[in-house]
UniProtKB/TrEMBL annotation:
Keywords recorded for this protein, A-Z: Flavoprotein
Molecular-function annotations in GO: flavin adenine dinucleotide binding; FMN binding; oxidoreductase activity
Organism from which the protein derives: Gordonia asplenii
Stored PANTHER family: NITRIC OXIDE SYNTHASE-RELATED (PTHR19384)
Domain Flavodoxin-like: 3-144
Gene Ontology annotations for the cellular component aspect, listed alphabetically: cytosol
InterPro entries documented for this protein: Flavdoxin-like, Flavodoxin/NO_synth, Flavoprotein-like_sf
Annotated TM spans: none
Identification of the protein by name: Nitric oxide synthase
Length: 150
C-alpha cells in the first residue's frame, strides 16, 4: 500500500498544504504528491491510501486545478471499491453556505464511486487565525494512525 497525496488548487495554498501533510506522513508512510492536473483517473490504485486536498472557488465550486480530474471521474466512472481516502479542504467562512464545498464535492464524487472516506474531514477557514499548514500538520498527525489501521 502506498499513500498518494492529490491536491487541487487555484492559487497555490493547496500545494503548500500538501507539502506540509507530506512532511508529517513521511515519518511512517512514504507519500507521493501530485497536482490533480497531472494525475489521471487511471492512475488511481484502490490498494493505495488517498489524501485529497482541495480548495473552493466561485460559489462553492472546485478550483480550476481540480476540474479536469473531477470531470474525468465523472466520465470514466471507475469502480473505487476498496479505496480509502481522507480529505482536507480549504475555504473561507466569509462565503457562508458554500464554505469548503470544494473538498466536500471531491469526497462526494469518490464516495459515489465506492471509495470510503476515513478520518476527520479537515476544513481550513482562511478567516481564522490558524495557518493552513499548521492546521494541516495537526490533521495529518491524527491521520497517521488511521492510515496504518488499513
Ligand atoms: C474568487 C474566490 C472565490 C472563493 N469562493 C469560495 C467559496 O465559495 N467557499 C469557500 O469556502 N471559499 C472560497 N474561497 C476561498 C478559497 O477557497 C481559500 O482562499 C483557499 O485557501 C484558497 O486555496 P488555493 O490557493 O489552494 O486555491 C474563494 C476565494 C476566492 C478568491
Amino acid at each position: 500500500m502506498s499513500t498518494v497525496i492529490l491536491y487541487g488548487t487555484e492559487t497555490g495554498t493547496g500545494e503548500l498544504v500538501a507539502d506540509a501533510i507530506s512532511d508529517v506522513l513521511a515519518a511512517e508512510h512514504d507519500p507521493s504528491i501530485y497536482d490533480m492536473t497531472e494525475f489521471a483517473v487511471e492512475d488511481l490504485n484502490t490498494d493505495d491510501f488517498l489524501v485529497v486536498i482541495c480548495s473552493t472557488y466561485g460559489e462553492g465550486e472546485l478550483p480550476t486545478g481540480a476540474e479536469p480530474f473531477a470531470d474525468e471521474l465523472d466520465e470514466v466512472q471507475p469502480d473505487l471499491s476498496g479505496l480509502r481516502f481522507a480529505v482536507f479542504g480549504l475555504g473561507d467562512t466569509v462565503y457562508g453556505d458554500t464554505f469548503n464545498r470544494g473538498g466536500e464535492i471531491m469526497a462526494e464524487k469518490l464516495t459515489a464511486l465506492g471509495a470510503v472516506q476515513v478520518g476527520e474531514h479537515g476544513r481550513h477557514d482562511l478567516s481564522s487565525k490558524v495557518k493552513p499548514q499548521a492546521q494541516a500538520k495537526e490533521w495529518a498527525q491524527a491521520l497517521t494512525d488511521v492510515i496504518a489501521e488499513g
